[in-house]
Design a protein that fits this description.
The protein is of the alpha+beta class. It has three helices and five strands, in the order βββαββαα. InterPro entries: KH_dom-like_a/b, OsmC/Ohr_fam, OsmC/Ohrsf.
Length: 138
């Protein structure tokens, strides 16, 4: 039987002589990238932070179900910031994730939920282990 939860993953960025990259996901989603400091939208660093925020919020919902807290969790907001490294190569040195969990939970439940969400989140798990990046010219 096919796994109905699996979905194609991947992204392609296309950039012409001028302008900004256009991103297309393996499922056909599209997104334009911006780089100007005052332009609304996402730059590549925003997309990385957004991926972590989205994954953590969804993982918190999964964790709430696992922990029997789904009925009391009203909303999860994951705010993510990145600290840029002071030395080369250009990169983030670390990330801060703040999970605001609305609902009838006590402090210990919120902490347990946040830790379980981190353990579930594919993006946080990937960032934690320095994955291999292979680049090839086509």
């Amino acid at each position: 039987m096919a796994d109905l939860r699996s979905r194609p993953i991947g992204a392609t960025a296309t950039l012409g002589k001028t302008g900004y990259p256009a991103i297309r996901s393996a499922t056909g989603g599209e997104l334009d990238v911006v780089t100007g400091p005052s332009q609304p939208g996402f730059n590549p660093l925003d997309l990385l932070l957004a991926s972590l925020a989205a994954c953590m919020s969804m993982s918190a919902r999964i964790a709430a179900r696992e922990m029997g807290l789904h009925e009391v969790v009203e909303r999860v907001t994951a705010s993510v910031s990145g600290e840029k490294a002071a030395d080369e190569p250009l990169r983030f040195a670390g990330f801060t994730v703040e999970l605001a969990i609305d609902g009838a939970l006590d402090h210990d439940q919120r902490v347990a939920l946040a830790h379980r969400a981190e353990a579930i989140c594919t993006v946080s798990n990937t960032l934690a282990v320095r994955p291999t990046v292979r680049v090839a010219a086509a």
